[in-house]
Amino acid sequence: MNRKQLVVGLVVLAALVAAGFWARHRIHFDFGEFRSQLALADWWRIALALACIYAGYLIRSARWALLLRHNQKIPLFSLVGTQVIGFTSIALIGRVADLVRPYLVAKKTRTDLSSQVAVYIVERLSDAGAMALIFSLAILQLPQADVVKGISHSAHLAALNQRFPLFAGFLFRFGGLVLTLAMALFLVGIRMGGEVIARVFEGLFGVVSKNLGRAAGHKIRTFRTGLDTIRSFADFCVLTVLSVGMWGLIATAYLETMHAFVASPVLATISPAKCVLLMMVSGGASIVQLPILGWFSQIGIVAAAISGFFGASPEASTACAATLLVVTFLGIVPVGLVWAQFEHVSLRRIAAESEHASEELTDEA
User: If residue 320 lies in a helix (H) or strand (E), which one and from where to where?
Assistant: First the structure.
């Protein structure tokens, strides 16, 4: 870790230690009950959940290959290794390794890194859209009482609900979908007139700093290049089906993992809609992923959400949150480490190389 990451890590560690001391005498936690929850879990369901996650990596490979096909045709599943090693790097090194996947794809296909970063951006946007669609459809199935309870856990939404309850409910149910549609319209604008928009942003931000203006223009042109991978309505439909299908598998993995905790009636009978709500909380907790320390902060956030939203015991909530982390995030690590050995890839070196290469791209802009 560099100095900045070390400082952030130490701050997070101090916060976790402080939270542990604060909760020590305020929250009763029975470690015997925690072990019992894990021992009584249905591990066949957990294995099925892990299989869903592994299947998602096959879809990721096929999706990336399809996004490349207008420039270079490659077998659909030839990029599985880049996806597996890339997410293993993120799990062990943190979000600083986010560009390992496009870097590995660029090396494997012998293409420019900038083109793969563009594909990565489109992939991330399609993920956001698929998640927003699944979330909005799931929230429609929740009773109004559960919606109000969900709103109460957000200080901003709770304050808004006091003054404008109908608007707060609409924002909670459809906010993600509306934001995704707005992003889609923005991207259509970039696809149709990206160069004009890049020049406008260069002028606006250039008033503050010429470097900032150039960087803004470069980002927009990169977006424009990435969107060139979607050249027809059929391309868009294929991308949508693959993205929604993949996130459907991830949602199934969450549901099966929660249903595996048969000793907790709340978790064993949780509805798919409530499970998707938890999935969104977990996704938000993983946005800033620190090495190792981030695992514990994510377990704490997800456990608090399970206990607060659904009323499960602290022991069952923590056991479920830890298992979800292993299944959905860390389960790929053993496969990735073995795959990296066969590919003669050093995770730390490839993460440093990808970060350095991305910095060079920014400097060239």
Answer: helix 314-325
pLDDT digits (tens, 9 = 90+) for 91-149: 888 777 788 999 999 999 988 887 788 788 888 888 988 888 888 788 777 666 666 66
DSSP of 52-107, one letter per residue?
HHHHHHHHHHHHHHHHHTTT----TTTTHHHHHHHHHHHHHH-GGGTTHHHHHHHH
pLDDT single digits (tens) 237-275: 899 999 999 999 999 999 999 999 999 999 999 988 888
Compute the distance between CA of residue 64 and CA of residue 74 in angstroms, rounded to an integer.
10
Mean pLDDT taken over the chain: 81
Contacts 24+ apart (CB under 8 A), 325-330: 325/295, 325/298, 325/299, 327/46, 327/49, 327/50, 327/53, 327/253, 327/257, 328/49, 328/53, 328/250, 328/253, 328/254, 328/257, 328/282, 329/91, 329/286, 329/295, 329/298, 330/91, 330/295
Report the C-alpha gap between 299 and 322 in whole angstroms: 6
The string of pLDDT tens digits covering residues 283-293 is: 765 665 555 66
Q: How many CA atoms within 13 Å lie on the side-chain side of 245? A: 14
Q: Which of 53, 27, 63 is nearest to 300 (CA)?
A: 27
**DSSP, residue by residue, 134-153:** HHHHHHHTS-HHHHHHHHHT
Q: Model's pTM, two decimal places?
A: 0.81
Which of 84, 136, 64 is closest to 331 using CA atoms? 84
Within 8 A by CB and 6+ apart from 352, the residues are none
The H or E element that residue 274 is part of is helix 272-285
Q: How would you classify residue 312: left for phi > 0, otherwise alpha for psi between -120 and 50, otherwise beta? A: beta
Give how far Cα 359 sits from Cα of 99, 105, 125, Å.
Answer: 11, 18, 22
The pLDDT, as a whole number, for residue 181 is 76
Q: Quick check: 323 and 46 in contact, CB under 8 A? A: yes
